[in-house]
């Protein structure tokens, strides 16, 4: 009788749509709710006739009944779904703890994850040592790298070495021109520690999963006086120009000259450059005609904004998918000195004020009165929270609606993740630390346990987000992983999202060897995704 009462009442559960696989307007309802395997066997063993009544037909065996009661997403089955409800669900429209799903492990400081924007839905994952891997939509890593520039990269096995391969960007017209841009540290003949090089390569004419190493065209090189503060981000804005993010030259306190490199616009260091790379082959780059300092002979005309310390991971907001609003904003995490970390939105001609200011506060009193257009951070946190910001992305994916419009970022040192939410009326941004769920929330291939330094974030072609981590920040250590960020509290209707369909590709044999390992489980079969859906359309 107890079994009958429990199961017959499931149609009134807030999870009824999931239990009966009726999550969308175009999804047919099933007669039998999803039952967890152990509970299903127990029910059938105690009351086989009840199983027939519940299922609406005669079942000749326990295995037949339990197969009919099986859900593709095991996280929704009764009674386990109640644990998710108690542990994680808040009122509709909010989100609770997040989970992550391991995508690939065995990486050496993964610092970049991006896509080519070519419709292939491949992911390109770059290691700091100078290798770019290709991951297919079914999460197979190809045995041959997309690019290998190890012999030209300056880095070491020293923990925390900031030098290496740091940036990767595909040209907006990659499908027609095959251009890919990279940012790496390489030796120099000067007295500097090394130089930063941004180069263009062409994809191979014979293999679209390989760059042709013979096609390098150096776009720009900048001597770096110290080993740290190398910046490393390159990206294309919605205006089609290449943005290059340079650190202040290293060492503590930007000790170069009377105002430091950040505020000295006669040097490219400590600046964000904006370059026109669609130039004739004999010209490395041109200056966009609307660059802010193009008519000022005292300023490097490549500079778009200045006064940054060490911008570590920047991204372009692809904008609201329905309205296109906010499209093109460029967000950056700028690593602080010894008190504050900050998140900024790029402003044309803007002065980010380093070394005059760190966060909102004065760092050098003589330089604290900011000249020009001051860029005020949208968020600052002190070193009780974390000590090295890692910039992220505004979530514009489809799978997890509660995250839409939130800027997700992290801290390298503390391993914490955060979300910023904009108040559209006031323009102010509110911050919250993201909870990572325990085993009662994150199970069936998911986890909330990073216990790692957050190196970077990445975005796939559909706008889904990934976090790149390591358990030891040596560039040569193979403890790096990539995780897919998942909101277990709510997802979009099944079949709505392209990403969901892509991840259901049939698995293929991985040709990998060595330490690199790819998680074989498919995301959509394992999401923990309670979704309050009105029963008015579920039944």
Task: Please provide the count of β strands.
Answer: 29
**Total number of domains:** 2
CATH architecture of the largest domain: 6 Propeller
**How would you name the oligomeric state of the polypeptide chains in this document?**
single chain
* Count of discrete alpha- or pi-helical segments spanning 4 or more residues: 10
Report the principal-axis shape. elongated
Largest sheet: 5 strands, antiparallel
CATH H-level superfamily title of the largest domain? TolB, C-terminal domain
Q: Examine the coordinates and then state which fold CATH places here, giving the name of the CATH topology of the largest domain.
A: Neuraminidase
CATH class categorisation of the largest domain: Mainly Beta
User: How large is the radius of gyration?
Assistant: 26 Å
Mean pLDDT: 87
As a percent range, the share of helical residues equals 10-25%
Record the strand order, biggest sheet: 26-27-28-1-29
Unreliable residue stretches: 84-94, 503-514, 520-539
SSE-based structural type:
alpha+beta
- Strand portion, in percent? 25-35%
């Amino acid at each position: 009788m107890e079994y009958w009462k429990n199961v017959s009442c499931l149609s009134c559960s807030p999870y009824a749509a999931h239990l009966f696989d009726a999550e969308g307007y175009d999804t047919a309802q099933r007669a039998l709710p999803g039952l967890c395997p152990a509970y299903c066997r127990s029910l059938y063993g105690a009351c086989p006739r009840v199983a027939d009544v519940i299922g609406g037909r005669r079942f000749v065996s326990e295995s037949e009944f339990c197969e009919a009661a099986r859900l593709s997403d095991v996280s929704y089955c009764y009674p386990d779904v109640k644990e998710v409800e108690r542990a994680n669900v808040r009122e509709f429209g909010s989100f609770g703890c997040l989970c992550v799903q391991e995508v690939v492990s065995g990486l050496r400081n993964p610092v970049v994850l991006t896509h080519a924007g070519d419709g292939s839905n491949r992911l390109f994952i770059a290691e700091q040592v100078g290798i770019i891997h290709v991951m297919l939509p079914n999460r197979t890593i190809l045995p041959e790298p997309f690019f290998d520039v190890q012999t030209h990269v300056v880095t070491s096995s020293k923990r925390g070495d900031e030098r290496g391969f740091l940036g990767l960007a595909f040209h907006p017209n990659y499908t027609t021109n095959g251009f890919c841009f990279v940012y790496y540290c390489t030796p120099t003949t000067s007295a500097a520690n090394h130089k930063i090089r941004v180069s263009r390569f062409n994809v191979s004419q014979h293999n679209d999963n390989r760059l042709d190493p013979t096609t390098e065209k150096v776009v720009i090189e900048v001597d770096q006086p110290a080993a740290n503060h190398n910046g490393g981000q390159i990206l294309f804005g919605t205006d089609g120009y290449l943005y290059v993010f340079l650190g202040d030259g290293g060492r503590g306190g930007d000790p170069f000259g009377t105002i430091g490199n950040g505020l000295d616009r006669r040097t490219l260091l400590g600046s964000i450059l904006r370059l026109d790379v669609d130039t004739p082959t004999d010209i490395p780059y041109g200056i966009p005609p609307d660059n802010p300092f193009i008519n000022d002979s005292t300023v490097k005309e490549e500079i778009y904004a200045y006064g940054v310390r060490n911008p570590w991971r920047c991204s372009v907001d692809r904008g609201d998918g329905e309205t296109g609003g906010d499209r093109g904003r460029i967000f950056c995490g700028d690593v602080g000195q010894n008190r504050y970390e900050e998140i900024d939105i790029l402003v044309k001609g803007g002065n980010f004020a380093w070394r005059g200011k760190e966060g909102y506060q004065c760092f050098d009193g003589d330089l604290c009165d900011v000249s020009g257009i001051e860029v005020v951070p949208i968020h600052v946190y002190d070193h009780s929270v974390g000590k090295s910001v890692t910039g992220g992305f505004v979530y514009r994916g489809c799978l997890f609606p509660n995250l839409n419009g939130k800027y997700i970022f992290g801290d390298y040192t503390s391993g914490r993740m955060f979300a910023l939410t904009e108040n559209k009326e006031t323009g102010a941004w509110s911050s919250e630390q993201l909870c990572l769920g325990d085993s009662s929330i994150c199970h069936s291939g998911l986890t909330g346990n990073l216990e790692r330094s957050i190196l970077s974030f990445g975005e796939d072609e559909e706008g889904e987000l990934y976090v790149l981590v390591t358990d030891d920040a040596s560039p040569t250590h193979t403890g790096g992983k990539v995780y897919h960020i998942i909101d277990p509290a709510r997802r979009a209707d099944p079949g709505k999202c392209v990403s969901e369909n892509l991840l259901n590709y049939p698995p293929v044999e991985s040709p990998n060897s060595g330490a690199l390992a790819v998680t074989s489980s498919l995301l959509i079969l394992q999401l923990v995704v309670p979704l309050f859906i009105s029963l008015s359309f579920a039944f």
